[in-house]
Amino acid sequence: MNATVRVQLSIMMFIEFFVWGVWFVTMGTYLGTLKFSGTAIGSAYSTTNWGAIVAPFIVGMIADKFFSAERVLGVLHLVGAGIMWYLSTVTDPTQFFFVALAYAMCYMPTISLVNAISFEQMTDPAKEFPSVRVLGTLGWIVAGLLVGWMGVEATHIPLQLAAGSSLLMGLYSFSLPHTPPKSRGKKVTISDVLGLEALSLMKERSFAIFVISSLLICIPLAFYYNFTNMFLNANEVSNAAGKQTMGQMSEVFFMLVMPFFFVRLGVKKMLLIGMIAWAIRYFFFAFGNPHGGVWLWYFGIILHGICYDFFFVTGQLYVDKKAPETVRASAQGFIGVVTYGAGMVIGSIISGRVVDMYKLAEPIGKVEHNWQSIWLVPGTMAVIITILFALVFRDNGDPKDKKTAAAQ
Predict the structure, then answer these.
(1) Domain extent for 174
(2) Are residues 100 and 236 located together in one domain of the fold?
(3) Which of 146, 206, 220, 267 could pair with 378 as two cysteines, CB 3.0-4.6 Å apart?
(4) Sorting pLDDT into bands at 50, 70 and 90, what band is 259?
(5) Are residues 172 and 214 in the same domain?
């Protein structure tokens, strides 16, 4: 990959995740000012998860068969820009849900598309992709810092910023290196798209436990994504969106040190550390306060790096190790649908209802909910899931290695 292409791909990644980060984090706070219920806010956030479920169909059944990836990327972002601008004018919860869902159907497939475009241009993706992908995390960080600096978290402006940056991304996409459809002329089935071939791996007990645990742990995860910014703003934490970017900063750090820990700890301990960090984060949120205990909230945000990298990235490596080469891509797609799709949809619905359950009869200043009780719910869920996982999961190693050893 030459320097020009590297710059092109890096800019692509930066804008791609700037588009997402500039509105997603603060949407709950904005919808709260519109007097949306917790259930309505949770439903609005679930649209991205529904989009994650539908995305493989759009990419696998359309982009991979008929059109070049960069053109599909451009069209989706241009259409998404118009939808997002309209979304910034919507104030009815039901209408907001359906418009946000339409936007998610446009945006979520683009995540796979930018990866596909990147891999196509790289001679050694394992070495070259991380240095390009990190620009996406930087884009998310810059988006949060910008929104926090502007002081517009409780307004519709982040949605309009997303629309503007999506328009920019749409136009920029047509200048990207040509990436022709890989499956043109081939029969692609729904089973291929959803990675259902990987279901055969569920026959192995350890893999089945991993999949079920991944789905369950994504339920409490939704509380963090959907309501942290609303929680911090209710407690008058200044530049909340900017401070939340500490989570992405820690994500970059722990991504760099992961190889060191992975070799020494192994899969099970890495996954457990990620799950334990989930629980600790929510307890920090529950027992911190906006005065002497605000550091607990910041620590909870910083733990995002461990939560994400030690569980999700380790999980991807585990799937790669367990799956035979013939179904490896299907297995990664399957676990994506299970976690970012099904698990987060359930979590978004539950988190909204829990927030409504603990709404105060009389607000205390800007605080309209019993946030301590709210955070104890996902914290307790994470503890229970972690204990069950620790008791029943066994990493039996790579079955391919065992067959090789037996043959020898």
Answers:
(1) 1-185
(2) no
(3) 220
(4) confident
(5) no
